[in-house]
Amino acid sequence: xxxxxxxxxxxxxxxxxxxxxxxxxxxxxxxxxxxxxxxxxxxxxxxxxxxxxxxxxxxxxxxxxxxxxxxxxxxxxxxxxxxxxxxxxxxxxxxxxxxxxxxxxxxxxxxxxxxxxxxxxxxxxxxxxxxxxxxxxxxxxxxxxxxxxxxxxxxxxxxxxxxxxxxxxxxxxxxxxxxxxxxxxxxxxxxxxxxxxxxxxxxxxxxxxxxxxxxxxxxxxxxxxxxxxxxxxxxxxxxxxxxxxxxxxxxxxxxxxxxxxxx
Length: 263
Hints:
By secondary structure, the protein is an alpha/beta fold. It is built from six helices and 17 strands. Helix 5 runs parallel beside helix 6 (236-248). The radius of gyration is 19 Å and the shape is globular. 35% of the residues are buried.
């Protein structure tokens, strides 16, 4: 069986909200394919230290801080790769980009790529990058956010019209479907760890949190690295205590809605 390789990758943003892709240099597997910069975690090295080292070696820049995001597992012919992705905002890095491995690099917008081919392990991640990190609205009527292409809207499945391409269902509703909705993304509302673990085909999770015990459980899941984005929905009192903690360990967004547990 191919070995498991632990890899970190950074989603580096500029001031315009675009993210960086770079091409794999000659001599490496999948040479010429585009990917998020990063590389293997060495023995005794933390994930963040590996991220800093790889960006310095490959692109000549200094990563000062980063937020963990998703974790993916991909099977290649030569290896099994465990990928841990970090978001690096424009104010969290310093320096001028350099092609130190004679690679190409390009700034891109989610949903509007102009480079190819992409490394296979990153296909699902590109869809997740279009999801905003802030939303307004309610689970009763719909959520609205914005990305670099404009407005991004998610609505309850039972209220969706043909023009709505992102919908959500509660776990129980999703479990009883005979077929998946034909939409760009299907979000699933979960209320506990068992539901989350049983619905890993979801494109995005909305996790409703009603107490501190569940708040801590969500924090642990995020720390371990979820494969799909998690939007945490909680009453205002819980958001005050836990909101910053969830975001620091990789929550996609935090929605403060006192009606979350009553939907």
